[in-house]
Amino acid sequence: MSDVILQAKNLRKEFGGLVAVSDVSLDIQQGSLHSIIGPNGAGKTTFFNLISGKYRPTSGQVIFQGHDITHMPLHQRIHKGMGRSFQITNIFPNLTVLENVRLAVQAISDKTFNFWRSAAYFDGFIERATYVLSLVGLEKEINLPANLLPHGGKRKLELAMLLAPDPAILLLDEPTAGMASEQVPELIDTINAVRQQENKTIVMIEHNMNVVMGISDRISVMNMGEMLAEGSPSEIAGNSVVQEVYLGQLYDDVDEMAARGGPA
Amino acid sequence: MAQTRPISANAPARSANAQNVSFVASLRENWLYWLILIVLVLFPFIIGWLSGDSPFGTPRGDRMVMRGESVYAQSVLINIFALSVLVMSYNLMFGFTGVISFGHALFFGLGGYLMGIILEFGGMDPNIGLIVALVVVLVVTGILGFIVGIVSLRLRGIYFAIFTLAIAEMGWLFFRGLSITNGEDGLNVASLPEWLDPARNRIMVYYVGLALFVLTFVLIRRLVNSPVGSVFQAIRENEERAQVLGYNTLHYKLFSITVAGMLAGLAGMLLAIMNKEARPEILNVSVTVDALLMTIIGGVGTFTGPVIGASGLHLLDTFLREAVVTIGPITIDIGERWTLILGFIFVLVVLIFPYGMVGTWQRLRMRFKRSK
Ligand SMILES: Nc1ncnc2c1ncn2[C@@H]1O[C@H](COP(=O)(O)OP(=O)(O)OP(=O)(O)O)[C@@H](O)[C@H]1O
Ligand SMILES: [Mg+2]
User: Fold this and answer.
1) Could A73 and B237 be called an inter-chain contact, meaning their C-beta atoms sit closer than 8 Å?
2) How many CB pairs under 8 A join A and B?
3) Which of these, A240, B187, B201, B206, could form a disulfide with B116 (CB 3.0-4.6 Å)?
4) Are B246 and A122 inside 8 Å of each other by CB?
5) Which backbone phi and psi does B191 adopt, to 5 degrees?
6) Residue A249: pLDDT band by 50, 70, 90 thresholds?
7) Residue A60 burial by CB count (10 A; 0-12/13-18/19+): exposed, middle or buried?
8) Whose CA is nearest to atom 16 of ligand 1?
9) Per residue in A126-183, pLDDT tens?
10) Can you give the CATH number for the domain in which A30 is found?
11) Does a structural domain hold residue A41?
């Protein structure tokens, strides 16, 4: 289990004068759950945007399954087996829950550019979408317009949209963001179940320390655009630099975290 | 272990029996559309029968003169067909794909002008000229739609809208100044084939218009319900998300804009046949604004909304514009205040039907179904 599936090499992103990501290198092992933690503005989401192709890096490379994908357009990376979710809920609000996921299945099929048959005719799409929705526990809500789901349901829907095309790697940007604290364990269970059943590699940005310590194989700590430390959960918990720079700051952030709805 | 399922898009094998069942089901679902189609097919004869005027016009000597209620009603409907096709095509782009353009009049106008120029100056047999015009209009509006679509890669939202407005205004200025089409006076299209001349054989123009109208309606419905159409709607809802799902959204927008442009070109041809002329006004931005208003009034992103919006406004325009209403001692000349009244109607409709007539009705029905 020591294959590297995803590799960031000296990735750098500057916005004007601001260095959001500063020469970050990171190896993600096949099949692992690798968490990235760090205070607000550390550059975590920007790092994801570089990997998933939303932004071009100022310099550096992204290697995925042995191929340099630094300059590959966003939509092609999905076809190569990369999936990502967003910190802020990002769905198709006026389409049904099923249609949201069906679109995700259709996207990687070769039957996509059909403009004459009814979409409902391709029941392979619907079958797969229904299956994935049952994985995340949304099977009862499939005909509801997505914007009528409660917040926790929307986060699950995102997870389903992510899983639908069966990606090799999942990039989750704060999957519990904005959730009521009592809903968090349920979503974490779902992520864990998916991970075990489908044997996925998961990279997860997460603010919630309890969550991270419990389920991660490895943790990377980011601060001010740099990777500060990397190690197993116990190594990170015991790392004095990390405690000083990040954990101290985090515990000052208790109020802010409560406002986000996460458990302090 | 990895429980990865192959993702297939297998079409189900359907037995002949299942097909019969689905035909009956479709008949039950679409009975209103079929009924409307039958009424529209018989319409010239129904009006003829009600009024006693022949649907073919009034004979004078050895030819027909286009007089009488039926022929007049046909002309109103031909205009509605042309407008509806224009508005449906606008709705494909705006209502279903979320692309806002202010340049749709350019495609509409090109349809009329290209046909007029080819028929008047092509020196061909009118029938052949008409076929050539049809091909040229489809090719030119298609290519133009494609080019405009490419620009949507760089420009988004309001910037794209302004770009399309600029292009369309250039087209308007160009044809206003073009001397071979008589500039502001417009080009008379006299060389139509006799079978399609609205001054001799209006009922044929009526059926050609009806065919275009029905084909456009069916085409857009199938397209929107297809896998490609579902991506159109995904782009409308959230384009970035569609990209992150793995769709090259540019391809889909190009397709939508190109098809919409070609349909608008056909609508322009139909109107030019009916009016037997192409005037610069058909290129004016007000045509696009009308299409936008009709879409909004009828229901953005619905199938029947554009038709209801186009018919409603055109009928009001036809029957109220000239009217002079006398209530007791007060006499109101509606024509004089027409724009004001139209604006008032628009505000009223938007307030009562925030999602357009059809859209609001659909939402109410859905809410009612859920609460049951
Ligand atoms: N598109 C952008 N343009 C300019 N600056 C940006 C852009 N995106 C991010 N930044 C800046 O880059 C820095 C890193 O932001 P980023 O969103 O990556 O942080 P983060 O670690 O995800 O924080 P959070 O925990 O709040 O989500 C911030 O200072 C942010 O303001
Ligand atoms: Mg972030």
Assistant:
1) no
2) 123
3) B187
4) no
5) -90, 40
6) low
7) middle
8) A43
9) 999 999 999 888 989 999 999 999 988 898 899 899 989 889 999 999 888 888 888 8
10) 3.40.50.300
11) yes
